[in-house]
Design brief:
elongated; four-stranded mixed sheet; alpha+beta; two-stranded antiparallel sheet
Length: 148
């Protein structure tokens, strides 16, 4: 074995196999951009309900996987988890270091490249009539409950 092959073998043993496009994998919860049908940011998940759009994507492209960011509040993910169970769509909650550093909250991915140009839900469905803003419940102080 030459010294280069030996060094590569040792590096692979100590650090693991080289990863392709680590920046993309970090952003898209361990997946690559070319495999994504739809993505929703954490901010979009917490402010809007995109259940109908996710349902459309699952219906158009069945037998793929939803990836959820494990750092997102579970109340924001619950509608999508229930939807995936209803549609028999597999899902995975990603809780590794990629999830901690990512701004993406949900991605619908294929096991192979699909090369969709527009994957952001707000750009892909700009005029969706069924998008309903989630209500922000403000708690009233103890005294305001009595005097308002």
């Amino acid at each position: 074995m030459s010294s280069d092959n030996m060094q590569n073998y040792l590096n692979k043993g100590m650090y693991g196999a080289n990863q392709t496009k680590p920046d993309e994998r970090q952003k898209y919860l361990g997946s690559l951009r070319e495999r994504i049908y739809l993505s929703i940011t954490i901010e979009q998940l917490s402010s809007m309900d995109y259940s109908t759009e996710v349902k459309k994507e699952i219906a158009q492209h069945p037998n793929n996987t939803l990836l959820f960011n494990g750092t997102v509040d579970i109340k924001d993910l619950n509608p999508y988890i229930k939807l995936s169970n209803q549609l028999n769509c597999s899902f995975r909650i990603v809780t590794d270091e990629n999830a901690e550093k990512s701004t993406i909250g949900l991605v619908y991915v294929a096991p192979q490249a699909v090369n969709i140009d527009t994957i952001d839900v707000a750009e892909k469905y700009p005029n969706s009539d069924k998008i309903i803003e989630k209500e922000v419940i403000k708690k009233k102080s103890f005294l305001k409950k009595f005097f308002s």
